[in-house]
Amino acid sequence: IQFSVCTSVYKNDKAEFIKEALDSLLVNQTMKPTKIVLVQDGPVPDELQLVLREYETVYPNMMNVIRLEKNGGLGNALKIGVENAEYDIIARMDSDDIAAPDRFEKQIAYLESHPECDIVGGQITEFIGEPSNIVGRREVPLDNEDIYKYMKSRCAFNHPTVMFRKSAVLSVGNYKDWFWNEDYYLWIRMMMKGCMMANHPDVLVNMCSGLDQY
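Structure (tokenized):
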């Protein structure tokens, strides 16, 4: 099955973290993505640009790097990423997180066995500094009914873990520039439209702790 990964980088991202994140998608996955749509949100330092050029060279058929002249924020970057994704199934990934090796295999299997599902996320661990230095775990509800209840008070998805159907996201207007909450705002609009939602019980992403947020 063909699917895209949508991610973004900006000037404060660390080159070594981006390499680890991309390797977790391109090298260490049991089911590799067809295409990575990476939005460079405004100018970035030379070190970061070198990393992007390297991956474009090594993976010319898999990397689609879209370079924006000005930084427009995460919501805008993801909106552009979704619009440029070639396939209906899109996985989200942050540029400083590490995907579990079987992440995509599990999510694709879920979507194939639940064709009515529009979005499936999963659990995360959080690390500080080194990926092995895990300091927490963030659990979210699993089934549609519990997710809908949870969403009334807080976000029911770990954003870097989600895999969704592009058609469902576009049907509610895509990501919007909604500072710090561009994901929650999108899920609420999907919920109001009656989209089917789920979370996988397993940890799908080891997430860099929010000390260096976008």
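The beta strands are 4-9, 35-41, 63-68, 89-92, 98-99, 119-127, 134-138, 163-165, 197-208. The chain has seven helices and nine strands.
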